[in-house]
Every structure is written in C-alpha cells, then in structure tokens.
Amino acid sequence: MTAEATIAERTYTIGELAAISGLSVHALRWYEAQGLFPRDIPRTPGGQRIFGDEAVRWLALLNRLRDSAMPVADMARYSQLVRAGEGNEADRIALMESHARYLDAQIEELIASREVIRDKIIFYRRAVASRT
Amino acid sequence: MTAEATIAERTYTIGELAAISGLSVHALRWYEAQGLFPRDIPRTPGGQRIFGDEAVRWLALLNRLRDSAMPVADMARYSQLVRAGEGNEADRIALMESHARYLDAQIEELIASREVIRDKIIFYRRAVASRT
DNA sequence: CTAAGTTCTAGAGTTCACTCTAGGTCAAGG
DNA sequence: CCTTGACCTAGAGTGAACTCTAGAACTTAG
Questions:
Q1: Where is the HTH merR-type domain (chains A, B) (predicted)?
Q2: Strands in A1-132 per DSSP E
Q3: Which one of A75, B20, B37, B130 has the fewest beta carbons within 10 angstroms of its own beta carbon?
C-alpha cells in the first residue's frame, strides 16, 4: 500500500474543473491537446475525462504562469519536464529562472510606466484646475 | 509670431522614424490608419509622410502605453482626445486612471507570481542538492 | 426507458497587433 | 536622365490563445 493509494481524491468532470479553474471547457480540452498536463487524463469507459485534485492544483499553477505572460509553449515544455519525472530539475530551474528574470524586468518596466501615467494624470489635473 | 513657429523642427521619413521608435515602417503606417496620431501627418507633394519631433515624442509615449499592455483601441481613444484639443481633460484623466489601476493590479500580481516562481526554483534546487 | 444536459472529436472561426505582398510611385546620387 | 532604394496603397497572411460549430455519444434524474 503506497502513500498515494491512501489519498482519497475527489474527481471532477471537465465542466466542474472549468468552473473551478476559470478556464472554459474548450480551453481545458485544448490545454490537454497542447500537452499542458503532466499526466494523462483518465477517462470513463464512455470516454469522458476524469480530473482529480492534482489537476486542480496544476491548473492553479498554470494560471499563475499564464497570467504572468508565460507562453503556452513554455508551459508545455515545463509540463513535459514534470511528466518525464525526477532527474531534469536543472532544466526546470533554467526554465523558471528565465521566467523569473522576465518577471523582474517586466515589474520594473510596469513601475516605470505607472510613473509616466501618474505624471500625465497630475498634468491634466493641473490643466483642469488652472482653468478657473 | 507664435511660440510654435519659432521651434525649428527636424523632419523624419517613415524609415527614419521606424529606426528611432523601434516600430516597423509597416506598423507606423498601420498606427496612422488606426488613428494613433493626434495630428494628421503631413505629406510631401509626392505623397510621402513627413514626421516631426512631436511624432517622435508621441511614439515614445505610445511605446510606454503599449509596453504596459494598453490595447491599441485605448491608445486610439486617447489619441483622438488629444486630437480634439483642450477641454476633454476629464476623459483623458479617466482613461489614464483606469490604466493606472490596471497597472497597480498587474504589478501586484506579477510580484505574487515572482514569489511562486522563486519558491519553485528553491524547491528544485533543494531536490537537486538532496540527491547527494 | 427516456429526455435533458454534458461531453466527445475534428476542425473552422475569432481577435489582436502586427507583418508581408503586389504592383506601382517617388526622391536623390552619379 | 537614370537607376536604385525608399515609399505608397490595399489587402492578404501570421501566430498566439483561445472560442465556437456540428454532429454524435454519454450520463443521469425521473
């Protein structure tokens, strides 16, 4: 009896997972086709997908990556590394460090942009105010 | 003699402006078609565009807005407000404040994402280290 | 058992922000 | 002049990330 076997896992239909993850049913199927899941999704005898809590957690991570502008291709690459199992941590680290560097640069740039926008707002406020 | 008339302004061909702004020649023509310039671009008798320093400065601003993910439609709306002249500062402020709020949220989210990424990296580094 | 609501696949369609093509016209150096 | 490189317009094409469609199969409440 392995540790995994002791974990009672809820299951979800694709519609339920869509509601939880915020992705559309279509998007979930498309994600699977793009190789964005680190495990094969089991099916009912009739062919319908059965997702588990692991998928819920994985999608939370994917959402983070996507919302921070990681391309789907990179998410797919990462998923495939996880799928391949232990031993490729160096590759995973490289991928994540690359994204972290992108995020650092992006954050800096957005902060600079916010400054510019703020200055514009101040400028227009003054323009309005000076028109007694 | 107005103040403007005293400003000696350099002119630029579309190719020069492309080099300066980092946009392609195609993109600049497309920007004009999208209404992203707050003034009509003058032409030579032969029909070629003549840009001035004002266009250079305007594109620097547009680049900031675009790089901070403002949709072209919003940049067009802003350009049209500037084109319309003084008196619509409230609209300009509303547009910029909306974008500023978006930026604030985006910056927060990217910082949170960076944390998640950093944790992943740390986790993988440990996994590598523990495999003596 | 049946009807309604989900889910299935394969593939076409959409949106955004360009990018590229075709078939010319213009401008500047020699 | 003439050539060559830059520029013109209109419109088609691209890549990313979905979104939607059609027609069929599955599932479940009654």
A1: 11-81
A2: 11-12, 51-52
A3: B130
pLDDT digits 0-9 by tens, B32-80: 999 999 999 999 999 999 999 999 999 999 999 999 999 999 999 999 9
Domain chopping of chain A, boundaries = 4-85, 96-132
**What phi and psi, each to the nearest 5 degrees, are found at residue B104?**
-55, -50
Quote the CA–CA distance of B96 and B90 in Å, as a whole number: 10
| Strand, helix or coil for residue B23 | coil
Find the closest chain B residue to A94 by CA distance. Answer: B121
Reported as a pLDDT band with limits 50, 70 and 90, residue B131 is confident
Answer yes or no: is pLDDT of A104 > 90. Answer: yes
- Strand D proximal to B49 Cβ, under 7 A: yes
Nearest by Cα to B66 from B101, B31, B42: B31
pLDDT digits (tens, 9 = 90+) for A2-27: 555 556 689 999 999 999 999 999 99
Which residues does chain B have within 8 Å of residue A68's beta carbon, measured at their own beta carbons? 109-110, 113-114, 117
Q: Select the residue of A92, A96, A107 nearest B110 (Cβ to Cβ).
A: A107
Fold of A4-85: Multidrug-efflux Transporter Regulator; Chain: A; Domain 2 (1.10.1660)
Residue A61 touches partner B, C-beta closer than 8 Å: yes
Nearest chain B residue to A118 by CA distance is B100
CB pairs under 8 A between A and B: 88
Neighbour count for residue B130 (Cβ, 10 Å): 7
